[in-house]
Amino acid sequence: MDSDHQRDDGHSTSPIWVSDRPDTDADTGTDAEPAGAARTGAGQADPASVPVVRVPLRSLIEQPRYRNLRNRALLTVAVALVAGFLLNDWRLGVTAGIVAAIADAVYRARSHSTVPAWRRASVAERRTEAQLRKLERNGYRTLHARAIPDTEAQIDHLVVGPTGVYAVDSEKWDKQLPVRVQMGKKLFHGPFDKKARLAEAKMEASAASELISKAYGRDVQVVPSLAIYGPAVPWKIMTIRGVDVYEGGRARKWITKRERALTDEEIQRLYEIAAEVLPPRYGED
């Protein structure tokens, strides 16, 4: 195995500050009023003079909720008319239309979620999470989907346990394309060079290590890794550009096949620090 231990976290951040304060008058510091609003009494705006914004019916119909209802109504009418004509019975047509509406509602309920797609864990993340859950009885603690502050980066799984602290990123790749390595330093998935993905995983672990170490008062190494699901990985564990790469099903063994390095008290303290300095990507439920 050939590994490159050079630090590769020369990233920059650019936080965007958004003010939620109301617009204020530059001279008086008071809340700005709508242009042309008349004032009555003790500085109060006259309700009769404030323009009323009317929302066009077309814009309401185009909203997703009403659009789905509109489409369902059209489907119901169309099925009822066609079925009634073909069966020569308007009652059967109405029944068919109702059945079509129910089927459409059930389909949309099963295929759509009130939770945005970007908040749902991927198949690969769920498979890794299932493995890590089995480590709890052995004293391991896990945090899932933790954000690196002031960046868009995310650690899929941060594990703190007797053998150390680990960052696991779960990847689902096309199984039709082979996974290969060149000269121990270049990871490829088919024709695609995964250098950027390795650099991202290393940066995430380095940032987490820096944040946890600062709060803990001692150096804490967070070991980065890439758990690959889908294609066959022609090795057990290989360190490429400072990141351990392995087939996703080996995540649990990759963590436990090491010597004990932390006490129970250290594990609990590091877990609490990690939960504080690495906020959940999607907020607490």
From TrEMBL:
Top-level taxon of the source organism: Bacteria
Basic and acidic residues composition-biased segments: 1-11
Domain (NERD): residue spans on this chain: 120-235
Stated name of the protein: NERD domain-containing protein
Annotated spans, Disordered: 1-48
Record-annotated membrane-spanning stretches: none
Matching Pfam families: NERD
Source organism (scientific name): Nonomuraea rhodomycinica
